Amino acid sequence: MCNSILAKMVHMKCRSKVYPFSNINRIVFPDSLVDWSQPFPDYSPEEYNSPGLKGKPYADPDLDDPNFHPKWNSLDGNINRKSHIGDYAVLNGRPLNPEGRTGIKGRGVLGRWGPNHAADPIVTRWKMDNGTKILHTVTKLAILQFCAIQRHDTHEWAVPGGMVDPGEQVSITLKREFMEEAMNSLQSSPGQLEKNKQMVEKFFNTGEIVYKGYVDDPRNTDNAWIETVAANFHDEDGTSVGQFELNAGDDAKNVKWMDIDKNLNLYASHSQLIQYVVKLRGAHW
């Protein structure tokens, strides 16, 4: 069984001045006006919908498509339009970001209007020397390492996560993303691929959910946002996945076992996800 830790995530990175992969500027405004309940009569953000979404199988149609009738806050066929944090408001046919204003409307580069569901496998092991845990010189706590990938798009280090396919169970997404991004299962030989799959299958049978909810992602807009289920899969003695040679694949530029401490600077809200794991494991931070 997995234990879940539900927590509120700070809404900051999705208010950066320029929207990612575009030249569209967000409206800049004080923190006091983020919440939709706060009057902001002059709020009139620019709309941006990436032209690259047209015709993509993972993307919703435009909201003005006469054949598009999404069921907000519901399981819409095999598309999950529910939010982990409760029902979101819908205004004039548009879902509203439950964490408030972002300075840009539309769906940006995200495929779905409303919640876009992701899964983030946080795979960890202890930093060891000849089978003995290495303790931090100051805190005297064991140092935890996690499987980190470097993204091709932003070059930032991150957890090897990805979007949940329609109708796919989150547990399947977690395993798939780790295999594709950290172990390069797409390019492994058939024999090695089968061996890796068996090892990962066994390893991913147990895990603990450390976060379920909204993600402060720079791609978020007023009408589309990312939510995730982040789960920790820990190799206590380093004899399972922790012994694998990691190979970058899919949209990962590089991959490595990265030491965890409070100075981590990771993509989106991944540093906060890592901190939940540190608390769970009683590791150095």
UniProtKB/TrEMBL annotation:
InterPro entries: NUDIX_hydrolase-like_dom_sf, NUDIX_hydrolase_dom, NUDT9. Coiled coil: none annotated. Residues 125-280 form the Nudix hydrolase domain. GO terms for molecular function: ADP-ribose diphosphatase activity. SUPFAM superfamilies: Nudix. Gene3D superfamilies: Nucleoside Triphosphate Pyrophosphohydrolase (3.90.79.10). This is ADP-ribose pyrophosphatase, mitochondrial isoform X1. The gene is LOC108732654.
